[in-house]
Amino acid sequence: MIDFPASAPALVSSIIIGYLLGALPLADRISRRYGVDIFSAGTGLAGATNVRRSVGRIPGLVVLVGDIGKGMLAVVAATILGIEGTALMLPVVAAVLGHWKSVFSGFRGGDGLATLGGAALALFPTIGLISVSVGMLFQLGAQKMPFSSLMGIVFGYATLVALSVAYERDTLLVLGTGGVASLVLAHALLGHRQRRHNLDWDDADEEWEDAGDAEGVTGRTRFR
User: Fold this and answer.
1) Rounded to 5 degrees, what are φ and ψ at 116?
2) Are 87 and 8 in contact (CB under 8 A)?
3) Whose CA is closest to 132, among 85, 78, 177, 90?
4) pLDDT per position as a tens digit, 117-127
5) Cystine design at 78: which of 52, 83, 133, 175 (Cβ 3.0–4.6 Å)?
6) pLDDT single digits (tens) 66-87
């Protein structure tokens, strides 16, 4: 157990470090090197999937590895500071928040899927690797399905739970990871809903503009 009053400075430091690591704008900076504003391209998310689709496979792979590394480093840094057990979930949440709302890119970011995966790799070195691999394989195999990335998290976490039960790993830490995964899923679903809503309004505006143009043409025809 951690003596929280004594470890408060280390805990606060780990949270700050976790946020700053998560906030590193890898997708934004790499995309700009290729002349692409990732926040205006594709889904508008600063993540590996959008970079792969909007910029290219190699940049997307670099962003994926970097985002995974951010989650791993957040856990490693916290461990070095003496944080352990379920308290490690605080810097993990901070890293995900940093990826969502990066101070370096106008508080914009991505979904945090890869960052969470990196944290899982550091928290559960063996079963985490298997679980993340299952999630990524599902995502790659179901790219044409809706919400493939989100379903990848579900399958990856289900694998983590099954393996943790089989190998008797820290149940509270697994549950904490599930809580963060739920936050990531909820954030991603809300973001998807908001983007669809904005797209519907954009389509409606275009329809009104087209209708206005058509009415103007009809009116001019009548006066002729």
Assistant:
1) -65, -40
2) no
3) 177
4) 999 999 998 89
5) 83
6) 999 999 999 999 999 999 999 9
